[in-house]
Design brief:
about 80% helix
């Protein structure tokens, strides 16, 4: 567990830096362009290369040294940040260098994620999987809990370039901790290569042949689709009536819910049947997502998002552990890479759709005098940001339906956790 903790600390610091950059870029682009579509495009390019290349990263994680791949992924991803930093000038905005830098960064993150997930299985026993999953989620949570508040405060006293420099510096810490862990464990024995296509196909078949894992992938694909709307739309919805600092502080306060949920799992674990907890958490997640779009009150919206984040780690942990115990260790890299591709495709689709839907359909419909202003507008309000609110309501309802339909699958309920 000590080796895992050291690795976890490095990834935590890296996640904080990445989250600060993601938040600052979304605020910067929205303030410069006023377009949700451009914000959505930035988010899309930050994730799509990683998702599309995850199966390749998964094959590499099963074929080579997983810790070395993590070092390479972290180190090379910083080059994309350097390119953005080099091309940002206070009085001269250009979108193309940001798009290129974000994409380059995401390409090398594809090397890191499958290796990191598979490394958890390398370092820990099955009894420690749930607690480790909760702690891994804390690193992801840091980008929502700590990063927005820090980035919002820094944007009040400096510009985005300072945040990019800080993010680049966090890479050195992550590479160092990973290198230390790598020295303390035995090097993997190289296996005979079967070719990328054949090994990716093996990972795909491992998912398709296990009906329980396949059902979990379907559930999480729907979940990722609807969460993609939350990730992209919450900031612009709140920014419509507040400043960047308020948005950052509110997102951080709300994300305390995710921290609480992750800490609970990390120290207490999950008691009870994992499939039942998965279904209950998913339904609550959708309900709170829908409530986040109902009101223009910052307190009500913030409370709903807090509860949304509180329930999210329970759903993620259940799915993570149920997959981990169902797949042999020697195939974990390929399977996690393929799962990332299949589930996160839902997120990519959300990023593609949400900006266009918000700017050209839902926001006009919920504007003063819009087609829905006299009906739904009487309940949730009209004006800037209310179309996004309606999208969150529909996303939450869709998520609840998806979990209800697929979460009670017999194959999922049959997965046993020791």
């Amino acid at each position: 567990m000590k080796k895992f903790m050291l690795l976890w600390i490095g990834e935590l610091i890296s996640s904080i830096g990445s989250g600060m950059t993601a938040f600052a870029l979304s605020i910067y682009v929205y303030q410069m362009t006023g377009s949700v579509s451009y914000v959505s495009l930035i988010t899309l390019l930050a994730y799509m290369p990683t998702i599309l290349l995850s199966p390749v990263g998964g094959v590499l994680a099963d074929r080579y040294d997983r810790r070395l791949l993590m070092i390479a992924g972290d180190g090379c991803s910083a080059l994309g940040l350097l390119y953005i930093l080099w091309n940002i000038h206070p009085d001269d905005f250009h979108l193309l260098p940001i798009l290129a830098g974000v994409t380059f960064n995401a390409v090398f993150v594809a090397l890191l994620e499958p290796s990191y997930k598979a490394t958890v299985t390398d370092l820990l026993s099955e009894e420690e999987f749930a607690k480790a999953s909760g702690m891994v989620q804390m690193t992801g949570n840091a980008r929502y809990l700590i990063s927005p508040a820090l980035a919002g405060l820094l944007l009040g006293i400096a510009d985005i370039r300072l945040i990019l420099v800080i993010d680049i510096c966090t890479v050195f810490v992550t590479v160092l901790t990973t290198a230390i862990v790598r020295k303390t464990i035995s090097k993997p024995i190289p296996k005979e290569n079967q070719g990328f296509a054949a090994e990716m196909k093996t990972g795909f078949h491992a998912i398709m042949e296990n009906k329980g894992v396949l059902s979990l992938v379907v559930i999480m694909a729907f979940v990722c689709f609807f969460i993609g709307f939350v990730q992209t739309l919450t900031g612009p919805m709140i920014l419509a009536v507040n400043d960047a600092r308020t948005v950052g502080i509110m997102e951080s306060v709300c994300a305390i819910g995710m921290l609480v949920g992750s800490i609970w799992i990390g120290f207490v674990g999950i008691k009870g049947k994992y499939p039942v907890v998965l279904c209950m958490a998913g339904i609550l997640n959708g309900l709170f997502m829908a409530l986040a779009g109902v009101s223009t009150s910052l307190l009500f919206t913030g409370s709903s998002i807090f509860l949304f984040f509180l329930s999210l780690p329970f759903m993620n942990t259940c799915a993570d552990v149920m997959v981990r115990v169902s797949i042999p260790n020697e195939m974990q890299g390929r399977v996690w890479g393929m799962i990332s591709l299949l589930t996160q495709s839902g997120t990519v689709l959300a990023y593609v759709l949400c900006g266009v839907l918000a700017d050209y359909i839902f926001e006009p419909m919920m504007a003063e005098g819009g087609i829905l202003a006299g009906s739904i507008g009487r309940v949730i309000g009209t004006g800037e940001g209310r179309g996004i609110g309606l999208m969150l309501i529909l996303s939450g309802i869709g998520m609840m339906l998806a979990v209800l339909v697929t979460g009670r699958n017999k194959a999922v309920r049959s997965i046993e956790i020791s």
